[in-house]
């Protein structure tokens, strides 16, 4: 894989170099005409030679890339149908038994959902206005309202608290 990166980088670099040479010949053509070592040659023929060389190089580069891609695909190893395949892995431990929730478990969950999240002793009885959370008992709510006035669930400022009647 490293060789392909090197060859692709080399091809791109050489292609860009050839392109820059072609552009420089076309842009700075007047300077080359005035130089003495090019007196016998015409710029137009030099430009055509550079252009042909660039396109030939581009064609060779494409052919090399296609050949390299085909070599990579042909070098992949595919398992033959004669080879034995490994059996799928089997679990090493027996499956866990599913325990259906009992009424006592459901009762504990319901009790936990109705407990004050501050003292965890009394039932929730207060709703905080602005955020709408029902999180505390009246005792903890009074303490919160006299201190920092932040909801224990979302930390939003509590404008007012009201007693909540659960029907």
UniProtKB/TrEMBL annotation:
Gene3D superfamilies: 1.20.140.150, Zinc/RING finger domain, C3HC4 (zinc finger). The chain crosses the membrane at residues 7-27, 47-66. Residues 116-155 form the RING-type domain. GO terms for molecular function: ubiquitin protein ligase activity; zinc ion binding. InterPro entries: MDM2_MDM4_MUL1, Znf_RING, Znf_RING/FYVE/PHD. Keywords: Acyltransferase, Membrane, Metal-binding, Transferase, Transmembrane, Transmembrane helix, Zinc, Zinc-finger. It is an enzyme of class 2 (transferase). One of its GO terms (biological process) is protein ubiquitination. The keyword Metal-binding applies. Its EC number is 2.3.2.27. This is LRSAM1. The lineage of its organism: Eukaryota, Metazoa, Spiralia, Lophotrochozoa, Mollusca.
């Amino acid at each position: 894989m490293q060789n392909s990166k090197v060859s692709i980088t080399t091809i791109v670099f050489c292609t860009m170099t050839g392109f820059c040479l072609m552009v420089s010949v076309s842009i700075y053509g007047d300077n080359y005409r005035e130089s003495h070592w090019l007196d016998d040659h015409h710029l137009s023929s030099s430009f055509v030679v550079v252009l042909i060389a660039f396109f030939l190089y581009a064609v060779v580069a494409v052919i090399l890339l296609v050949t390299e891609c085909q070599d990579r695909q042909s070098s992949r190893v595919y398992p033959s149908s004669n080879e034995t395949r490994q059996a799928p892995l089997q679990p090493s431990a027996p499956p866990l038994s599913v325990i259906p929730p009992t009424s006592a478990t459901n009762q504990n969950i319901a009790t936990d959902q109705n407990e004050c999240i501050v003292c965890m002793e009394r039932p929730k009885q207060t709703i905080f206005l602005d955020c709408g959370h029902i999180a505390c008992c009246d005792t903890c709510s009074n303490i919160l309202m006299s201190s920092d006035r932040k909801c224990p669930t979302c930390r939003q400022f509590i404008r007012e608290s009201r007693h909540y009647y659960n029907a």
